[in-house]
Specification:
The complex is a heterodimer of chains A (655) and B (255).
Chain A: E1 11-12, E2 14-19, E3 30-31, E4 37-42, E5 45-50, E6 57-61, E7 67-72, E8 78-83, E9 90-97, E10 102-111, E11 114-119, E12 125-130, E13 136-141, E14 147-152, E15 161-166, E16 173-178, E17 181-188, E18 193-198, E19 208-218, E20 221-228, E21 233-237, E22 242-247, E23 257-266, E24 269-276, E25 280-291, E26 295-302, E27 309-310, E28 316-322, E29 327-332, E30 336-341, E31 346-352, E32 358-362, E33 370-375, E34 378-383, E35 388-394, E36 400-405, E37 412-416, E38 421-426, E39 433-439, E40 447-452, E41 458-463, E42 467-477, E43 483-494, E44 500-505, E45 511-516, E46 520-525, E47 530-536, E48 541-547, E49 552-557, E50 561-566, E51 572-577, E52 584-589, E53 595-600, E54 604-609, E55 615-620, E56 626-631, E57 637-642, E58 647-651
Parallel strand pairs in A: 1-55
Antiparallel strand pairs in A: 2-58, 3-4, 4-5, 5-6, 7-8, 8-9, 9-10, 11-12, 12-13, 13-14, 15-16, 16-17, 17-18, 19-20, 20-21, 21-22, 23-24, 24-25, 25-26, 25-27, 28-29, 29-30, 30-31, 32-33, 33-34, 34-35, 36-37, 37-38, 38-39, 40-41, 41-42, 42-43, 44-45, 45-46, 46-47, 48-49, 49-50, 50-51, 52-53, 53-54, ...
Chain B: H1 31-40, H2 106-116, E1 125-127, E2 134-136, H3 157-184, E3 187-188, H4 191-213, H5 222-247, E4 252-253
Antiparallel strand pairs in B: 1-2, 3-4
Helix pairs in contact in B: 4-5
The chains are: A mainly beta (655), B mainly alpha (255).
Chain lengths: 655, 255
């Protein structure tokens, strides 16, 4: 059979752009010491992006599951990253060479998850912290690339250790913190031992989320600062292990302190950037003065020329300084990256990405420059030439499953998990998306597929209950002369027994094909509202396309096969082995129907010749299951999205 | 359905702003001239004293003929056909070259030539009257010319005959052989027979397919499942048979 994976003459697809950033990783966004690149995780890959030029990207791939922590050595030569894995397996720490962008070393010692990794001051050691199921600290020698020693990270009475920071003065000292635990460790290399000393927090019980070391600044104040979930910051003396002071006293930060970054010493004391769980980024001065009787008086104030900056509704997970801090980048939980200028404290949104699985993508008819995507409760419009987000429509606590846009571009039809079809339009003022009409109770178990006819006045929708329904959109004037919209049910076709995964309409508008999870693909007569032919297979059909002037359909599903079927009588023409492992989630065919692309749980994009049934190109780059693929209307690019929220743009080759 | 003024997604496309290029304002090509003339001619009469030129240097004194115009160098005149011309006719006072004498021995060379010469053949003639008037034979047509033969250029009879004989013998032999083969070989299915079988198989397949399409989507009971599986097996068998017949143009049937 043609189309073997190991076929020698398959070429690699060329990746043009990645839109993605995993903001959930604590301090995952970092600036490389060369000040020209930012490093961030995306699924199981790490991306190095040029910030000086037009966003040239480089991918480090080698992890087998989501990356959970990253650190860059102070000289910039190495990157170390840890991942999580499945229960009962060992998680990998990978050491990368920055110059060659290759993995040098893989260490497998921690169980299930690596919580944090850090380089020591001069890059002599790498310190890694295991996750909840592991709970140990391991020190690795960078010369021999071997582990020196390991130790449980906390005493048994304490909770989980979550964060790690290394001293800026010596190679041998580091600090770990977590739930009711805060320890300063010293490395004794000769005896292959690390020795912890618990800090004395007095009566405080805190869960520490982030640690910033500032022990190199003032000789007699070797302090480090710990952000807590309570919303205050503890300042601890490294040499004495005693809590010096904590701030702010009463007005604690809402939802905890999630990121701290020290900028400089000023005459007003320590100047720090603080990010919180409620999305505030503030630049605070903390001055310390000692009064007699060992009393410490601290003054905690925001810089006077600006107010704390507030990001809407998601936590700040990383603050990365460029160089000394004249400019810094802020990554949020919601996968957005902001660039701040320190001087005037102004923020620029430079990157927006999907933070959870992308459910659907569509191109407007005949336009390759724009795409519409949907994730959970958001529908976004992107400009592909710049990779920037243009518009966004948000509906909290709902999930948008499917999108369709009319050919005239005036309405966007979306299917949601609450069983409603929402019809959106564009505001004339600023072209933002607005809700025009909601079809209530369109389907019982959520709307899973929608399609629009070429005229754009009929919607075919498929639901989780297996119903395929046809609606007619009618616009009319109400008594005040305002334009209103209404959707009338025309046909309700009940044949499928499981959720409808995709619906495609033939160009004649007289028939459509629906793929379903019950192992059937049905071709419907839309004028009569009855089934024409049915295709059976022992699989969950995921996607269907019309091919060969709509005389044939091609299907794919969980059985790794691509089936070609006759539309006339539903007989099988041929069957191809589409994937070696994992379901094929989606397929899309070019407008000239000479080639089609498939993608699925294999994380590969395969480009097939339609008639020959051969794979010509393979695209590698996704780090999670591919959920959708679309070929641009001009056949110049191919867009694919995956469950980690990444949008990848590939150059479409001449097939 | 919608009015045209409604906003669409296509409005989001970034349109490159094309500034209308204005044609350059007209400027006369004489503008510079006019400018110059306007200023240059002014104050011609404002001279004070002689023109300010550098005084002649003593080393740079006036030399002989310096003020005469410099003529181009003289060139020799040449006719364009000079190199093609024949040598000129000898003059009347030219003396011819005298005293040249050949070394060739004409007597002996003549003798040798005659002795070695091949005697000339007499011309072919014929006498057609009793007075002995002779005519040339060649142009008269009495002498046969080979290329004017009637069968000139044709394959001789004996060759064609021989060829025919060989062909006939081969044909007889072939017939004999094929007769022998036919007598011992398998029967071949004719085109019509083959077509009839294929049509029949297809008809059967369509019958079953029609029934199959009429099956319900849910196969919940054992008989339904059995029926579906049986039909699928039958169809698969028929498809295989059809493929077998269609794949092979020539089909023999063993006895």
């Amino acid at each position: 059979m043609a189309g073997e994976d190991d076929n020698i003459d398959t070429k690699d697809l060329e990746l043009e752009r990645i839109i993605g950033f995993n903001g959930k990783v604590q301090s995952g966004l970092m600036v490389h010491p060369d000040r020209e690149h930012i490093v961030y995780p995306l699924g199981c890959n790490i991306i190095i992006e040029d910030i000086t030029k037009e966003a040239k990207q480089c991918i480090l791939s080698g992890h087998t599951n989501d990356v959970t922590c990253i650190d860059i050595s102070n000289d910039g030569r190495y990157i170390v990253s840890g991942q999580e894995t499945f229960m009962g397996f060992k998680a990998i720490i990978t050491l990368w060479d920055y110059a060659t962008k290759k993995a040098i070393q893989k260490w497998e010692l921690h169980k299930v998850k690596v919580q944090a990794v850090a380089f020591s001051k001069s890059g002599k050691y790498v310190i890694s912290l295991g996750g909840q199921d592991d709970g140990s600290v391991v020190v690795w020698d960078m010369v021999t690339k071997e582990p020196i020693c390991g130790s449980p990270a906390q005493v048994e009475s304490a909770g989980i250790t979550t964060c790690l920071a290394t001293s800026k003065v010596s190679d041998e000292v580091f600090v770990t913190g977590g739930d009711n635990t805060l320890r300063v460790w010293t490395i004794d290399k000769e005896n292959r031992k690390i020795r912890p000393s618990n800090t004395n927090l007095g009566g405080f019980k805190r869960s520490i989320t982030c640690i910033e070391m500032v022990d190199d600044q003032v000789e007699d104040m070797p302090y480090f600062f710990c952000g807590t979930t309570t919303g205050d910051i503890l300042c601890i003396n490294k040499s004495t292990n005693i809590l010096q002071f904590e701030f702010p006293g009463k007005d604690k930060f809402c939802l905890g302190v999630t990121a701290i970054s020290f900028v400089k010493m000023t005459d007003k004391g320590f100047n720090m950037l603080i990010g919180t769980g409620s999305g505030i980024v503030g630049n605070y001065n903390i001055s310390v003065c000692f009064e007699k009787g060992n009393k410490v008086k601290t003054v905690f104030k925001h810089r006077s020329d600006a107010k704390p900056w507030k990001h809407c509704e998601s936590a700040i997970t990383s603050i990365a300084k460029r160089g000394a801090g004249h400019q810094f980048f802020v990554g949020t939980d919601h996968s957005q990256v902001y660039k701040f200028q320190f001087a005037d404290y102004s923020a620029d949104l430079i990157k927006t990405c999907h933070s959870c699985p992308v459910n659907d993508i569509i191109f407007p008819f005949g336009v390759a420059q724009l795409i519409l995507t949907c994730q959970e409760g958001e529908i976004r419009v992107w400009d592909l030439t710049t990779g920037r987000e243009l518009r966004r429509f948000v509906l909290a606590n709902k999930v948008c499953n499917a999108l369709a846009i009319s050919r005239d571009g005036k309405i966007v039809v979306s299917g949601w998990n609450d069983g409603k079809i929402r019809i959106l339009g564009f505001k004339s003022k600023d072209l933002s998306l607005e809700l025009k009409h909601v079809v209530m109770d369109a389907h019982n178990k959520g709307v899973t597929a929608v399609a629009l006819t070429t005229r754009g006045d009929q919607v075919i929708s498929g639901g989780g209950d297996g119903m395929v329904r046809m609606w007619e959109i009618i616009t009319f004037m109400d008594h005040t002369g305002k334009k209103e919209m209404r959707a009338d049910l025309r046909h309700s076709m009940k044949e499928h027994k499981n959720c409808v995964s995709e619906i495609v309409i033939a160009s004649s508008d007289k028939e459509c094909a629906s793929a379903s999870g019950d192992g059937t693909t049905i071709i419907w007569d839309l004028t009569k509202g009855s089934r024409k032919t049915v295709v059976f297979a022992n699989t969950l059909f995921k996607s269907v396309c019309y091919g060969e002037d709509e005389h044939q359909i091609i299907t794919c599903g969980t059985d790794h096969k691509i089936g070609y079927w006759e539309t006339y009588d539903g007989s099988m023409i041929r069957e191809l082995e589409g994937a070696k492992a994992g379901a094929i989630n989606f397929m899309d065919i070019t407008s000239d129907q000479k080639a089609f692309a498939t993608g699925g749980e294999e994380k590969l994009i395969k480009l097939w010749r339609y008639r020959e049934g051969e794979v010509t190109h393979v695209g590698k780059g996704h780090s999670a299951n591919i959920s959708r693929i679309r070929i641009a209307p001009d056949n110049r690019s191919l867009i694919s999205v995956s469950e980690d929220g990444a949008i990848l743009q590939w150059r479409f080759p001449a097939v | 359905m919608f009015s045209n003024d409604e906003p669409t997604i296509y409005n989001l496309l970034t349109v490159e702003e094309t500034k209308e290029k204005k044609p350059k304002a007209y400027t006369s090509k004489f503008r510079q001239n006019v400018k110059q003339e306007y200023t240059s001619g002014r104050g011609g009469a404002k001279t004070m004293g002689p023109a300010k030129v550098t005084a002649p240097q003593p080393t740079d004194y006036l030399k002989k003929h310096e003020k005469e115009p410099q003529l181009p160098k003289k060139e020799e005149f040449k006719y364009p056909d000079d190199n093609r011309k024949k040598p000129s006719v000898p003059k009347n006072n030219d003396t011819p070259l005298m005293g040249l004498k050949t070394t060739k021995n004409f007597i002996s060379t003549n003798a040798v030539e005659n002795i070695t010469a091949v005697p000339k053949l007499p011309a072919k003639k014929f006498a057609d009257t009793r007075n002995g008037d002779v005519q040339n034979l060649i142009p008269s047509g009495y002498e046969p010319v080979f290329v004017h033969k009637k069968d000139f250029g044709e394959v001789p009879m004996y060759l064609t005959k021989r060829k025919e004989e060989v062909a006939r013998a081969q044909e007889e032999y072939d017939q004999y052989i094929s007769e022998q083969i036919r007598r011992t070989a398998l029967r071949q299915l004719t085109y019509d027979e083959r077509q009839a079988i294929i049509d029949g198989l297809k008809a059967n397949w369509e019958d079953i397919q029609d029934q199959y399409q009429g099956l319900s989507v849910v196969t919940d009971t054992a008989p339904k499942k059995n029926r579906k599986e049986r039909m699928e097996a039958q169809m698969k068998q028929l498809e295989r048979d059809i493929e077998l017949f269609e794949k092979h143009k020539v089909i023999y049937i063993g006895n």
